């Protein structure tokens, strides 16, 4: 019994270590500079919501937040549609070059963005996509396609052939079979994939870091960094910025924790 | 393959159909991943400042990299991070997973969610949070240490402590991931194996060595491969905490690559470092998966 108690104690310590830093950061975001120096674990004497106002308006977090949302939506939806189409092609058709094209599309699982970001910068420069939403969205879609194609090919292949067979006999086109028969059958997989695409896009730092110098187009992670440099002595405001980033992520995580944990542990192979 | 598809394709429509489904994906993928991948190799053979006409220099950039002490120093820092990114989180994840599974503890989903939380956060956010936690003047970690009489440490600003600090932050962000992977793996180990071990009179520790560890072979391979690659391509956390400093004490390969390509306009040389990262990533993945036998499903 004592042994069990000690083990629980150790697990709770592990839990505090994992989530404590976020809570302490949020505590700091409600304090004044002076109060912060006096004690980091105490509750603020007066909750300073001003720090959030400062971060949101002067710090430009409203812009960063909207940019992150725009980019996330514009990446996730097309990535899902395109992954459905390419996964479908590889699972239900037999065609010349299928193996080669499949291997090519999986290149993104092997080559990390870090390795290609320098040439990618010049590709985007040539296409006048630096400092634009296009430069943030299109490469992110491309990076999502490898994992999406792999996952959805597998999901489509697991649907029994009799089901599509019947639709073919009824004279349905392949397009119709994809969107009206197959996709509804694998909805949970598509949901998980959408969540993963969202988290990967929302958290991406290197791409927007290289592509954007204009705060007009910066997303939250890059914004937070520039913000930290500009407000380097003002910890409460930086902490407010950090809280603005992690709270929505935490809420999404808590709602979809089962799918997300499962997806992220299987999706970890993605570079 | 499984079925004769030729007849079906005809009924599906024209033979062009699969290509039409693939076309948009292929175009986007080729432009933003395919061409840059090829481009990395091409650029690595050039001497180019990004503006004026490039000059073909063959393998000169590679030769230069191998004799560049800063490249080796940066790569060495990646190597130093490996115990923190691979070994430490694996142990910190495996121990509680084995105990929770062994004792069938309740409330494990709270620990699962809590431990995993840091793993879904962007690296920059983690960096900002820990810069505050490790603030030498009045950060929470030093105040806690002060309670037990330890003098305040410089952490990220200290030449000797900066790299271990970055490593510990990485371990903190990853152990929940390892915990979840191991816990899922443990549930797949047949209960009979444990019963057999117990009949043979194995102690808890012997049981762990004889049944648990071999049963987690695939999971261990995945955890090592994933975290090894993360140690190799780490950038976000370092950029948000130390920017490679103090001095060069936390400079890593990706940071040195970006510095070369964008700050001092040695694009060709920067690309060489990118190619090296790609080759090392691929090599380490293959070696890990080979060493641990079959890849996990």
UniProtKB/TrEMBL annotation, chain A:
Highest taxon of the lineage: Bacteria
Places the protein is found: Cell membrane
GO CC field: plasma membrane
Protein name: Binding-protein-dependent transport systems inner membrane component
Main subcellular location: membrane
Membrane topology: Multi-pass membrane protein
Gene Ontology biological process terms from the UniProt entry: transmembrane transport
Entry keywords, A to Z: Cell membrane, Membrane, Transmembrane, Transmembrane helix, Transport
Family that this chain belongs to: Belongs to the binding-protein-dependent transport system permease family.
Record-linked Pfam families: BPD_transp_1
ABC transmembrane type-1 domain span: 65-256
Membrane-traversing stretches: 7-30, 64-88, 100-124, 136-156, 177-200, 235-256
Keyword field contains Transport: yes
Keyword flag Cell membrane: yes
């Amino acid at each position: 019994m004592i042994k069990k108690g000690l083990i629980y104690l150790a697990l709770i310590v592990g839990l505090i270590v994992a989530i404590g830093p976020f809570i302490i950061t949020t505590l700091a975001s409600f304090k004044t500079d002076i109060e912060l120096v006096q004690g980091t674990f105490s509750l603020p004497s007066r909750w300073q919501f001003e720090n959030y106002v400062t971060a949101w308006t002067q710090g430009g977090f409203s812009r960063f937040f909207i940019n992150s949302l725009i980019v996330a939506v514009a990446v996730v939806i097309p990535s899902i549609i395109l992954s459905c189409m390419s996964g479908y092609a590889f699972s239900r058709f037999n065609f010349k070059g299928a193996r080669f094209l499949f291997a090519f599309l999986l290149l993104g699982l092997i080559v990390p963005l870090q390795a290609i970001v320098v040439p990618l910068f010049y590709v985007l420069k040539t296409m006048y996509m630096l400092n634009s939403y296009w430069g943030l969205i299109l490469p992110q879609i491309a990076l999502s396609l490898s994992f999406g194609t792999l996952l959805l090919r597998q999901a489509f292949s697991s649907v029994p052939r009799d089901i599509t067979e019947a639709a073919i006999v009824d004279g349905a086109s392949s397009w119709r079979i994809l969107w009206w028969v197959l996709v509804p059958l694998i909805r949970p997989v598509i949901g998980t994939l959408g969540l993963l695409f969202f988290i990967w896009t929302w958290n991406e730092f290197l791409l927007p870091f290289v592509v954007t110098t204009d705060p007009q187009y910066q997303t939250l992670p890059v914004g937070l960094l520039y913000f930290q440099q500009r407000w380097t002595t003002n910890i409460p405001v930086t902490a407010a910025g950090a809280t603005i980033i992690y709270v929505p992520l935490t809420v999404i995580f808590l709602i979809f924790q089962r799918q997300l944990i499962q997806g992220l542990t299987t999706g970890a192979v993605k570079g | 393959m499984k079925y004769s598809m030729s007849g079906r394709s005809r009924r599906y429509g024209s033979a062009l159909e699969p290509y039409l489904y693939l076309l948009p994906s292929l175009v986007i993928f080729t432009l933003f991943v395919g061409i840059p991948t090829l481009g990395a190799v091409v650029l690595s053979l050039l001497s180019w400042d990004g503006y004026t006409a490039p000059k073909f220099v063959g393998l000169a950039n590679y030769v230069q990299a191998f004799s560049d002490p800063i490249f080796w120093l940066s790569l060495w820092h990646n190597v130093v991070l490996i115990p923190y990114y691979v070994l430490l989180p694996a142990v910190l994840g495996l121990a509680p997973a084995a105990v929770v599974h062994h004792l069938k503890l309740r409330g494990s989903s709270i620990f699962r969610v809590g431990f995993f939380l840091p793993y879904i956060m962007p690296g920059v956010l983690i960096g900002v949070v820990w810069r505050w936690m490790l603030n030498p003047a009045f950060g929470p970690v030093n105040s806690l240490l002060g309670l037990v009489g330890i003098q305040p440490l410089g952490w990220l600003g200290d030449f000797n402590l900066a790299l271990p600090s970055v490593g510990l932050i990485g371990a903190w962000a990853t152990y929940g991931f390892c915990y979840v992977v191991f816990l899922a793996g443990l549930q797949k180990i047949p209960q009979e194996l444990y019963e057999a071990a117990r009949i043979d009179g194995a102690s808890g520790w012997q049981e762990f060595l004889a049944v648990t560890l071999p049963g987690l072979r695939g999971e261990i391979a995945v955890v090592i491969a994933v975290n090894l690659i993360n140690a190799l391509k780490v950038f976000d956390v370092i950029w948000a905490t130390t920017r490679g400093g103090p001095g060069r004490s936390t400079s890593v390969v990706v940071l040195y690559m970006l510095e070369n390509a964008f700050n001092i306009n040695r694009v060709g040389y920067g690309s060489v470092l990118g190619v090296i990262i790609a080759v090392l990533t691929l090599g380490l993945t293959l070696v890990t998966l080979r060493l641990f036998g079959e890849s996990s499903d």
